[in-house]
Amino acid sequence: MSGCNKKLKEEPNSILVPAFFQTSQGLQAGLDAAYAGMRNFWGAQELFTATVIGTDEFQRGVDGNSDINLYSYTSTHSTTTTLWKAAYVFINTCNGVIDYADKTDLPAATKNTIVAEAKFLRANYYFILVQFWGDVTLNLHFQSEATTAAKRDPMGDVYDAIIQDLKDAIAVLPASPKSNGVLSGKATAVAAKHVLAKVYLTRAGSAVKKADDYQNAYNTAVDIINNKATLGLNLLPDFSKVFAEGNEDNEEVLWTVQHTANLAYNGPNNSGISSSNGISTYSADNVLNHMWVGQYEKRPGMIRSTAYGRPYIRCIPTRWLTDTAFKERVNDTRYSKTFQTVWYANNPDPKGYPVWTSPLPAGAPADAVVGQPKFKLGDTAIYMPGVDKTKAQIAASRYLLIPPGNYDNTLSATMVKYFDTKRADLNSPSVRPVIAFRLAETYLVAAESAYMLGLPDAVKYINAVRERAAYPTGNATAMDVTASDLSLDFILDERTRELCGENVRWWDLVRTGKLLQRVRMHNKEAAANIIEKHVLRPIPQAQIDATTTGDPYNNSLYFPLWN
Amino acid sequence: MLHFPHQKRYGNTFFKNSAFIAVCLLCFSIMLPAILHAQEKTVTVKGTVKNETGEPLSGVSVIVKGTTIGSTTKADGVFQITVPVNSTLSITMVGFVNKEIKIGSVDQSDLGISLSSDKLEMDKVIVVGYGTRRKSDITGSIVSISEQSIKDIPSSNLATAIQGQGAGIDIQRSGANSKPGATPNILIRGSRSLGASNDPLIVVDGIPFNGSINDLNQDDVASVEVLKDGSSTAIYGSRGANGVILISTKRGKTAKPVFTYSGYVGTSKLTKEFPVMNAAEFTDLKKWANIIANPGKYTGLDDPLFLTNGVFDPAEVEGIKNGRNTDWQSLIYKTGMITDHQLGVSGGNDQTQYAISGGYFNQTGIYYGQSFERSTVKLSVDQQLGKIFKVGLNSLNTYSVRKGESANPMAQALRASPLASPYDSAGNILNTYVPGSANQVWNPLADLIPGAAVENRKRLGTFTTLYLEANLFKGLKYRLNAGAEIRSDVYGNFYSDKTSFRVNQGGSASSNRNEVSNNYTLENLLIYDATIAQKHKLNFTGLYSLQEVSSKSNQFDNTNILADYLAYFNPTYGSNLKGSGSSSKADILSYMGRVNYSFNDRYLLTLTIRADGSSRLAEGNKWHSFPSAAFAWNVSRENFMQTIPAISNLKLRASYGSVGQQSIKAFQTLGQLSGLVYNYGSNMVTGAYLTSTINNTLTWEYTKTANLGIDFGLLGNRITGSVEVYKAFTNSLLLPQTLPPTSGIPNPIVTNVGKTENRGIEVHISTTNIQAQTRNDFSWTSDFNFFLNRGKVTQLAGGVTKDVANGWFVGQPLDVYYDYKRQGIWQNTAEDTAAAKALGLSVSGTSSVIGTIRVADLSGPDGKPDSKIDATNDRIIVGTSQPKWEGGTTQRFGFRGFDLTVVAFARWGYTMNSSLYGGGFVNTYQGTYNNIKTHYWTPENHEPWNPKANSAATNPLNRSVMSYFDGSFLKIRSISLGYNLDPSLVKRIGAKNFRVYATAADPFILFSPYRKAGGIDPEGSGTVGVDTPPTWSMIFGINMSF
Questions:
Q1: Between residues A12 and B348, which one has the greater pLDDT?
Q2: Which residue, among B937, B269, B236, B252, has the nearest Cα to B592 in the 3D structure?
Q3: What are the Cα distances from residue B6, in Å, to A392, B613, B621, B623, B839?
Q4: CA angle B577-B673-A145, nearest 5°?
Q5: What is the ipTM of this complex?
Q6: Mean pLDDT estimate for chain A
Q7: Which residues on B lie below 8 Å from A13 (Cβ)?
Q8: Quick check: A269 and B505 CB within 8 A?
Q9: What is the CB neighbour count within 10 angstroms for residue B486?
Q10: Shortest Cα distance from B581 to chain A (angstroms)?
Q11: B 605-644 residues inside an 8 A Cβ radius of A
Q12: CA A101/CA A103 separation, integer angstroms
């Protein structure tokens, strides 16, 4: 009988059980998963939606999510729910790595590096949470047992934990992505410092600010800038090269979230975070390439192509962004390097082209012939001059001429930073790594903290970014500003010109206390709805509903209206 | 009487073993008097048994009453037996009324016995767990479905054939589609488990069956018994909580070889097309969607801007000009074919009986590329070896091919613009996106190009059981049952680049999964029968068994296959190869003892105990005992009842028992990490993160059922029936509990928390309305069943009264819909505008709620309406999928060899969830895709129920509330008209039996509010989805034997 009783013992041989985490192989696998978790944020649609749309920079496109842009969403919204869930899954993964490192027989140095990387990642996950939700649950130890209780910890404690993690990471991690043997996408001390500077700066703008936050932000950012040569880092001379395809490891880049053309190791190859049987599998693609692409394919002479992208058209620039923030286009080359304004005809079918009709419009080109196509394959099909045109000019144009007044939510000037022409298919997501942090932002963090401290350095750091923007055709010195030009609004405008679309804007506006004011001024659709409570995201209903023991989890700490 | 303490500690088997031995000893001591029973003087009796028409009957059991002395008749109906003087012979055969004949003290050489057939089968022998019982000796609640009832409904699987035929058995199509080879959902006495399975245990020829119901050929089935109450199911212990379906297959009889052929062919057709808009309606929808999304931009529906500004694709503009109206659905449906053939031979002599049969079933769906084909071979042999031993083999072998199981053309066919053409100017299939559908809808006809979309599931398996029986000495029998079930399931698919399957993904893709499952069961049974002093009958059954299920699988997926014709056969030629695999094994170890005792055939007692250990549960919680008791009183056999001639049968039954449930996946107690891929530049890695926690406390979920029943027969059994009342309490529910996301553990944990209750009433009535004396007379019999089940959650984890994340509410049924309360549409009136503003809703611009679905502000944080619509306070239970009652009826008419059978069933008083209207992809009112045809709100028509079109909204606000409907229905399951050739004619062609018939399956839905609202068929478990629509079919068949 005892022989038969052995039959009742389970011997899994095709699944990974939690004990694996406590082995040296398991520890490494845990760290890899903690990195992979970042794909659910940088590059995924959710973080894009929550940071890009509903700001002064971008409003929803025709296929966009109007709830977020209109501030008409509730606690059940999938965007915020998904972000919340994913962050905690991978915080727990980091916790596992940090707690179990000592149980493995790895060499001390290896262990220390692994723990430092996990702390860098954990700090980043918490930083995302605290910026969206304020007081959040702070859990710094591996949770392997079921719990149905949860509580919100004070925001100040969360910031303290983030800062401690980053300091611990800085002490151990290799100096820079350019240091010897550092693999692409790995955490480094300079990336941790950059985040630390942003954390200080952000806390300085929050309810739990500390007196030396701006000073610490300034010191940390300036430290990076002063040591950039030894770190092998620098601002690239040409702004357009920062986001050039295949150049994601350039010397301006501090940290990337990786993707690969080896699709078996990329995301699920669709547009979102994948799920099976209702359970998310936390494998996510970089879909930023799709987000800004308009419906060019519905215009004459155009069909969908890999080069021009898949028209998700989740957002379009606000008129303030294209017309005001980027008004200067002579010495500042960033407008033309940030936006696509011309499309060349790519429809091989000759029937897809418009013909001149009789009578020819006044001012038609000299070679226009009634009944003949206005243009042909390879010619300009769509052009956005960026300045006003008369109706007559539009009618006389051989191609589709779209002045800013005719931008609409199906097609507008198109942000190109994430374009990816090397995807498997015209509908495939991007295989490019996502640049999360880069040195130009470090300069802008230095400038912002210096400005808040009243230090004259602010001008120096902002001008460094502006002068680079003149390359190669503009006059760099003409880009320089003086102390009298500086204001918090100017710094935000400069951040837009440099960083627009880079998944930071909503946080920038909240940090500087400018969200309501700027959204009301520049984002017409959102203006009517946005109110004070919108500087935080609602605690997801899934969290509230699943917290069935202990104190209820709720939103009411700051904004009872969220409930 | 027999009660094992719960086995709480792992390894404590000594006590269990000793208890088992104690039970054996007890039974042996009861047997002793019988063993000592002495022989007396004997006489020899020879005779012939015939039926009413004078045909000899073989296999009739002739037993000396009160003893085990017996014989059976041979092929010519003859038997010979030596019996004690002055004995009574009991002549019994299934389907015939028992007869008793007194034998005096002289030999008889030519005793003629005629048995009359018992249509009502009041005393037929039915299969119970580990044995058979006469129906009059049954103490529990068992539904028996005859071979005839199964034959009445020719269908692709057994579950469909018994739908509507038994009270308490709720069989529904899963998801309401008509895919060939789809298996229905079976629920016995409602659902009781929230987290674990509610599927009943299926036992085929005594051995638990783990395959699909599709692996069985219903032509091989002789009877189906469904065990429902705690006492009947307790014998299956840990696996019996959801009821047990016992399937007996046909075996050989002592008779000359009989050849049988049965076959049918038929067609199936679409019940009804999905109600989508035509070209003109869609044109208006698209215009309204854009007018509403762009206030002030258009002058109205006739604005010429619509034709030039890209709202309509150039191809759609052309369609508008040409008056094109493509009915996409009509292009993808066809007539399905059904074919079934079964050829068999059976027979045997005293020593050997055999049955061999081969079957072939083929069904093609109404959508190209969907089919199900099954070939079966069955062999059964029973061999007597001397006086003591008997061995037997029964082997069911199946090969099936199912094609297109996930092919669902509806997302394309229902959403494609009716203004667009499926063909290019040259008449070829346009192999691209359908114009005007936002590059999301691929031409559904492209999937039909041969080789473009391939999906096959091939299953090859055997279910073979062997037994060895030894009559150790009088009344005591040992039996070894060994069952092996080995199946291979190979699933492969390939979708070429240009198919709807690859929309927005790019490149072809293939996948191939190989799974082999090996299950075996070993059972040692000891059976003892004794009759003491004529009036005391005792039966003991003891069991020790081991069941093991194991399976292994491997899968690959890849994309960009070099050549389409390689399909899924060679993963080398492709890119992005991914692999996965699994291996699992689970065991159950069991001890069981059962005692049946009856006194004077009037008082019947059944006591059962089973102890099971399961490998799936946590250490220390693996073992549990499941005791039960049942009592029955055959009132009609009491003397005082003989004075009431109208009551021919009356039996009262009561039972109480406990059964378990452990049908959770293996390895649930261990916790699990999941893999996640990543890369550092060109360094590819696979990480792992925790997705499920360790679970050290997982134990059995068990159900205790109390059952009261009455069996009755009136007017000489012209009216028979039964009424059952039961109450079942399920404890320690295996529940997947969703953890707060802050725990960092994404997957729900399976815990033993919570309780549910089920109570219900079941009524079965059979009547012989008009009894025929001869073949030429008119006859009419009816069966009715009616049942209701009320299930509710009575306790949840942590003492909470609601668990919104999982949709569970204490005091409410197990499956409820929790949503906002639908109030119609926000109208463009001053009153509604003010009310919307008061709720903080926008009433102007593109985000205006005017014209959208209005839901009620029911409550707030203080328990009062708070002028705010929110998920926490304003959602309520809007319905349940648990019906108020269900019922079915079978009416059989006969006249001059013709028979007409009508089977109807109803499910009444429940809420269904239709993703056709809410939650799905065809009722978005976005105007981007074609839409379900409804009268939707426009600023002009003030429609009060369906929202406005809006191209700026992917879906209507609060769209989920559109999905609820009254699901009640009454439908005719089948109408069958048959003709039995005149016996003399049959004889002349050398046959024994010849019947032709025609059957219409699912011909009518007589009542359905959902259908009235535009839907097709409300029947379906869970959400009624949008998939290959339901069908009705017409078949013609022959049954013959010779």
A1: B348
A2: B236
A3: 92, 11, 10, 8, 57
A4: 165
A5: 0.96
A6: 92
A7: 583
A8: yes
A9: 14
A10: 7
A11: 613-616, 622
A12: 5
Chain A residue at shortest CA distance from B672: A17
User: Which residue, chain included where needed, has tokens 């005017």?
Assistant: B850
Q: In which residue ranges of chain B is pLDDT below 50?
A: 1-39, 119-122
Question: Mind listing the pLDDT tens digit for each residue in A69-111?
Answer: 989 888 888 899 999 999 999 999 999 999 999 999 999 999 9
At B52 the pLDDT is 63
User: Which tokens is B457 given?
Assistant: 């599931």
User: What is the predicted pLDDT for the residue at B8?
Assistant: 41
Q: Which amino acid, residue B834?
A: A
**Phi, psi at residue B535, to the nearest 5°?**
-100, -20
Q: What is the DSSP letter of A176?
A: -
In sequence order, what DSSP letters do the residues of B1-14 get, joined into one string?
Answer: ---PPP--STT-HH
Per-residue pLDDT at A272 exceeds 60: no
The closest alpha carbon to B31, from B414, B570, B536, belongs to: B536
Give the Cβ contact number of residue A360 at 10 Å: 14
CA atoms within 13 A on the CB side of B934: 24
Residue A440 tokens read as 């130009």
**B660 and B239 Cβ atoms separated by less than 8 Å:** yes
Longest dimension (CA), chain A: 100
Mutate to test the interface with B, among A298, A394, A561 (most CBs of B within 10 A): A298
Strand B42-50 relative to strand B108-114: parallel, antiparallel, unpaired? parallel
Is B59 in contact with B255 (CB distance < 8 Å)? yes
Task: Supply the DSSP string of B342-398, one letter for each residue.
Answer: EEEEEEE-SSEEEEEEEEEEEEE-SBTT-EEEEEEEEEEEEEEETTTEEEEEEEEEE
Which residues of chain B are within 8 Å of residue A8 when distances are taken between CB atoms? 10, 587, 589, 613-615, 622
Please tell me if residue B278 touches chain A, with a CB cutoff of 8 Å: no
Phi, psi angles (nearest 5°) of residue B484:
-130, 135
Strand B244-249 and strand B201-204: the pairing is parallel
**CB–CB contact A428 B743 (8 Å):** no
Test B737 with A148 for CB contact under 8 angstroms: yes
pTM here is: 0.77
In B474-508, the DSSP E strands lie at 476-495
Contact A417, A248 (CB under 8 A): no
Taking CA–CA distances from A75, the nearest residue in chain B reads: B871
Q: Is the pLDDT of residue A172 over 90?
A: yes
pLDDT tier at A394 (50, 70, 90 boundaries)?
very high
Position A468 scores a pLDDT of 97
Cα dihedral A379→A383→A388→A394 (10° resolution):
50
How far apart are alpha carbons B396 and B889 in whole angstroms?
32
Taking the C-alpha atoms of residue B899 and residue B778, their distance in angstroms, rounded to an integer, is: 10
- Report the distance separating Cα A534 and Cα A526, nearest Å: 11
Inter-chain CB pairs, A–B, below 8 Å: 301
Which residues in B135-179 belong to E strands, given as ranges?
Answer: 142-146, 169-172
Q: Quick one: pLDDT at residue A558?
A: 52
The predicted pLDDT at position A328 comes to 94
Cα dist from B906 to A303, B433, B452, B885, B947, whole Å: 54, 42, 41, 8, 32
Span A434-476, pLDDT tens digits: 999 999 999 999 999 999 999 999 999 999 999 999 999 999 9
Select the residue from A5, A6, A10 to test the B interface by mutation, using most B Cβ atoms within 10 A.
A10
Q: Check B684 against A74: CB less than 8 A apart.
A: no
Enter the tokens of residue B494.
Answer: 């390939």
pLDDT surpasses 80 at A42: yes
Q: Give the pairing of strands B61-64 and A400-401.
A: unpaired
Q: Is A326 exposed, middle or buried (0-12, 13-18, 19+ CB in 10 A)?
A: buried
Q: CA–CA separation, A548 vs B799, rounded Å?
A: 9
